[in-house]
Design a protein that fits this description.
The protein is mainly α and 164 residues long. 54% of the residues lie in helices and 8% in strands. It has a 3-stranded antiparallel beta sheet. The longest helix has 36 residues.
């Protein structure tokens, strides 16, 4: 078991700054020792949480998409009863305890939820793909790009995908 520093060498550093510094030492032969000498246990936890948050949870998104495929198409509020949400075949999905022809924001939200969630999942997959392309370019960039400037724009630590 590693014994970490008791007090921080980097008291005001952001998680991004800590991650950059920690990853500089990971690949070294004495990397674990260096990390233990430089970082507190809390700082290492912060770095691990920061790097984990930057990794797309594709399994969870796939599970959400699978659940969405099982939802019947065409959810809507029933005419003349905004509190009754039904599928395209008229089967009740949710009853909100109201009746009559009134505007019901919760009903509108629920009726739109499947289509909105599907759109959000598509947008998230696209954004993750674009982010990976950007990260690849940062990782492969030579001296023609000031990488730190680009890294800070998206909170990315160069090389961090190889550590997960």
């Amino acid at each position: 078991m590693m014994t970490f520093r008791g007090t921080s060498v980097f008291p005001d550093w952001t998680d991004w700054q800590l991650a950059r510094e920690l990853l500089r030492h990971v690949g070294c032969a004495d990397g674990e020792q260096r990390i233990a000498e430089l970082f507190t246990e809390e700082e290492v936890r912060r770095v691990n949480a920061y790097l984990a948050a930057g990794r797309p949870d594709t399994d969870r998104l796939t599970a959400i998409e699978t659940r969405l495929k099982a939802v019947p198409d065409g959810w809507r509020q029933r005419e003349a009863d905004a509190g009754l949400i039904e599928d395209a075949d008229g089967h009740p999905i949710a009853v909100l305890g109201t009746s009559g022809d009134v505007q019901l924001r919760l009903g509108e939200f629920l009726a739109s939820a499947p289509a909105d969630a599907e759109w959000l999942a598509q947008q998230l997959r696209w954004a993750w793909t674009q982010l990976d392309k950007l990260r690849d370019r940062i990782d492969d960039a030579g001296s023609l790009m000031v990488r730190t400037h680009v890294e800070t724009a998206i909170g990315y630590v160069r090389g961090s995908r190889e550590t997960g």
